[in-house]
From TrEMBL:
The keyword Oxidoreductase applies. The chain holds residues 1 to 692 of 872 of the full protein. It comes from the Bacteria. One of its GO terms (biological process) is nitrate assimilation. This is Nitrate reductase. Residues 1-55 form the 4Fe-4S Mo/W bis-MGD-type domain. It comes from Rhodobacter xanthinilyticus. GO terms for cellular component: membrane; oxidoreductase complex.
Length: 692
């Protein structure tokens, strides 16, 4: 059996891939992988069912006709070079994905930031965890997740806020369920507008109003101070306490939508339990005030010193398998490789020197929503989209589709041509898929694991790092993009992390700077950092942070309602998210009949009282509309959603249900700090669909 890593969520479970007696591929949980110890969820268990080649893109295409690699790569290099020469480096962009392996990400980032000389590279991870990155950087000075998965098992209280862990990070949920069964004294609090499957283990569920999370954590901070629970010794390592507390005391707990009695119960539990972990995910991040919400959570842990110790700390959980790797490698438009800061001249010079780069941007590039706006208004004239489907997944998705339709030159690398985005490409490049490629990914606890190849590349499919490197070479940088294996890319990346480590940056894996091919092949999962300064473990129990003065910063947070306003025309609040058994826009999971059985079609979850009010019946068709677009969805009556709020899954595409692209309805409102879209709070109208 070959050891690899599941390509879906940020839990990063280890898998064993082999063949059964009939020669069919089988995938099992890896009992030795520290993320899952052999467990898999429904998606991981069905991996072998998603490897068929029936819809694979097997040769490059130019304007819909099959082409050779030479012709396609020459065209991509020439059109990017010409566009840059005529309109400058910021007239081109890469939009990449948390599905990329770290080695792929590294090459894309080096090509755009170091050689093209623009910071216009952003990732679809912008849609899922950019607010956590921004919150970490504001509080800690770097994007550092303090804890480890085992902290959820060691805690006496686990708070899950904006996280449907049971469906979105199922194996971590399984670990939590097992820990709670073993230690009945453990308590779990779920903060979520919906009564999700995660609430099955909740001792307390706070059905927070949409956007009300910061009001809850501000109320908690005020109560921590009022009850004398502040850790004064730890506060010596923190600045901003007084301002953060004043803002917390000034905020209105009623904004949370939670009763005073429920809030008091929550505060009793949180303040009265030393070993507390607060897990947060998309429900916090996908907000126009997501960064503030993250900092409201971090404030409570900093005020009490409950951070970086066994069973204690704030814990952001990433959505995608390599969202963390993308953060580390500089896949966001406002970051450099290895957690170095694009806008820090010392960091910039160090990376430029290491790369021997001709030109480095001095300011952040365009974040995802602004990037597609720039495509729409002609400022970006050539874009390369890699392993993501923004025509389905971006907010205001119809505008994204129109922007790409009007763009001079669109390149798409993917495993299939059957996406709404690939349909708009001038050049389609066939990439290898999971099981066919080698590289590394980082999960939510900073654990770097190998993905390993067990299948040959089908047809003409190539690895992403190699496609990007070949374009870099054809654009004139032959010597700088001449790796012969992902192991060489990883070694260069590790060496660069040592440069950052010497500048005092947290991310340092320089121990692997000279990793050999056999050692890379055998690389065991490890938690970073792994450099001369320190190895693995947790961060911040010692009060040492990565800010200029070495102290953490508490941030004054004033809770804000969602930007999209409820009105007579748009009286409902639309929440979007994942279902248990589908992944993203279903290009892989929809291949499994077993996974499709869970929830077979797109739906709108609506409270029965609301449905009756607008004339909808169970299993009818609802028309969901915002100022930006509309979708048609099957009605699913449920009192698990709050009256006035509705929920729709984000997976279905134009191909599988022509009017079900829910992101055509979601407004492209973003957090001003993180640039993350507010995907969970668009004001919408709901009416029965009348066939014309
Ligand atoms: Fe894969 Fe996530 Fe399921 Fe683990 S929990 S098997 S990483 S989808």
């Amino acid at each position: 059996m070959t050891r690899s890593t599941c390509p879906y969520c940020g839990v990063g479970c280890g898998v064993l891939i082999g063949r059964d007696g009939a020669g069919e591929i089988v995938v099992k949980g890896d009992p030795e992988h520290p993320a899952n110890y052999g467990r898999l969820c429904s998606k991981g268990t069905a991996l072998a069912e998603t490897l068929g080649l029936e819809d694979r893109l097997l040769a490059p295409q130019i304007d819909g006709r099959e082409a050779g690699w030479d012709e396609a790569l020459e065209l991509v290099a020439r059109r990017f070079t010409e566009t840059i020469a005529e309109h400058g480096p910021d007239s081109v962009a890469f939009y990449v994905s948390g599905q990329l392996l770290t080695e792929d990400y590294y090459v894309a980032n080096k090509l755009m930031k170091g050689f093209i000389g623009s910071a216009n590279i952003d990732t679809n991870s912008r849609l899922c965890m950019a607010s956590s990155v921004a919150g970490h950087r504001r509080a800690f000075g770097t994007d550092t997740v303090p804890g480890l998965y085992e902290d959820l098992e060691l805690a006496d209280l686990v708070v899950l806020t904006g996280s449907n862990l049971a469906w979105c990070h199922p194996v971590l949920y399984q670990r939590l369920v097992a820990a709670k069964a073993a230690r009945p004294e453990m308590r779990v609090v779920v903060i979520d507008p919906r009564r999700t499957a995660t609430c099955d283990i909740a001792d307390l569920h706070l059905a927070v109003a949409s956007g009300g999370d910061a009001a809850i954590f501000n109320a908690l901070l005020a109560e921590i101070a009022r009850r004398g629970a502040v850790d004064r010794a730890y506060l010596a390592h923190v600045t901003g306490f007084d301002a953060a507390l004043a803002a917390a005391e000034a905020s209105d707990p009623a904004m949370s939508g939670v009763s005073n009695a429920e809030l008091a119960r929550f505060c009793d539990l949180w303040i009265g339990t030393e070993k507390v972990v607060t897990v947060y995910s998309q429900g916090i991040n996908q907000s126009s005030s997501g960064t503030d919400k993250v900092n409201a959570i971090l404030n409570c842990h900093l005020a009490t010193g409950r951070i970086g110790q066994p069973g204690m700390g704030p814990f952001s959980i990433t959505g995608q398998p390599n969202a963390m790797g993308g953060r580390e490698v500089g896949g966001l438009a406002n970051m450099l490789a290895c957690h170095m800061d694009l806008e820090n001249p010392t960091h910039r010079a160090a990376v430029q020197d290491f790369w021997r780069a001709p030109a480095m941007p001095e300011a952040a590039g365009l974040k995802a929503v602004d990037m597609f706006r720039a495509v729409g208004n002609g400022k970006i004239r050539a874009i390369w989209i890699i392993h993501t489907n923004p025509v389905v997944s971006m907010p205001d998705a119809d505008a994204v589709r129109a922007a790409l339709r009007g763009c001079d030159f669109v390149v798409v690398s993917d495993v299939t041509a059957r996406t709404d985005t690939a349909a708009l490409a001038h050049v389609l490049l066939p990439a290898t898929a999971w099981g066919e490629k080698d590289g590394t990914v980082t999960n939510s606890e900073r654990r770097i694991s190998r993905q390993r190849r067990v299948l040959p590349a089908p047809g003409g499919a190539r690895h992403d790092w190699r496609i990007l490197a070949e374009v870099g070479q054809r654009m004139g940088w032959r010597g700088e993009f001449c790796w012969t294996s992902p192991a060489e890319v990883f070694a260069e990346y590790a060496a660069l992390s040592g440069v950052g480590g010497r500048l005092g940056v947290d991310f340092d894996i320089s121990e692997y700077s000279e990793i050999s091919l056999p050692d890379y092949a055998a690389l065991e999962p490890f938690v970073w950092p792994q450099g001369p300064g320190r190895k693995g473990g947790r961060f911040f129990a010692d009060g040492q942070f990565y800010t200029p003065d070495g102290k953490a910063r508490m941030i004054a947070v004033t809770p804000r309602a969602p930007v999209s306003r409820i009105s007579a025309e748009f009286p409902f609040r639309l929440n979007t998210g994942r279902t248990r058994d589908q992944w993203h826009t279903m290009t892989r999971t929809a291949k499994s009949a077993r996974l499709n059985q869970h929830l077979g079609e797109p739906y709108l979850e609506i409270h029965p009282d609301d449905a009756a009010r607008v004339g909808l019946e169970a299993a009818g068709i609802a028309r969901v509309a915002s100022a930006d677009g509309e979708a048609l969805l099957r009605v699913y009556l449920s009192d698990a959603v709050r009256p006035g709020e509705v929920f729709a899954p984000m997976h279905w595409t134009g191909e599988t249900a022509s009017a079900a692209r829910i992101d055509a309805v979601v407004s492209a409102v973003t957090d001003p700090v993180s640039g993350q879209p507010e995907s969970k709070a668009t004001a919408v109208s709901i009416t029965p669909f009348q066939a014309r």
